[in-house]
Specification:
The protein has four helices and five strands, in the order βααβββαβα. With about 130 residues, the protein is α+β, with helices and mostly antiparallel strands. The protein has a five-stranded mixed β-sheet, sandwiched between helices.
């Protein structure tokens, strides 16, 4: 794991890689337009995972910094999976100094429940959440 670095510097992000993964490989953002990807990154606290300067993972947090945070778009590219990088990425997000006082974290996943349970996330009654899709 020492070969990997995690940074919140938005200037380092490989936005082409992020958009390509989200719009082509992810199940949750398939078909997302480039402009949506760009605005979502710009409106979030982004985390990039890097090996030898190349981006190999990503996560972003939408937050007010105190009461609420949404963890979104978490991924590790296929060749770097299975090495604990996803766990390290999530742990780094949750321990970030700007996010330590957040007391309500939310995320959505269809397949990574075990990963997030390790950090204390629990399934919830979806009936409590409301959505507006104009």
């Amino acid at each position: 794991m020492s070969n990997y670095e995690i940074s919140t510097d938005p200037a380092r992000l490989d936005r082409d890689l992020i958009h390509r993964f989200l719009s082509e490989e992810s199940y949750w953002a398939r078909g997302r337009g480039r402009d949506v990807t760009e605005r979502s990154i710009d409106g979030s606290l982004p985390f990039g995972a890097y090996r030898a300067g190349e981006q190999v993972g990503f996560a972003r947090v939408v937050t007010d910094g105190t009461t609420f945070a949404w963890l979104a778009d978490v991924f590790v590219v296929r060749p770097h999976r299975g090495r604990g990088l996803g766990k390290r990425l999530v742990q780094t997000v949750l321990e970030h100094p700007e996010l330590r006082s957040v007391y309500r974290w939310v995320l959505g996943t269809a397949d990574a429940h075990e990963l997030y349970r390790r950090f204390g996330f629990q399934e919830t009654d979806r009936g409590r959440f409301m959505v507006w899709e104009p």
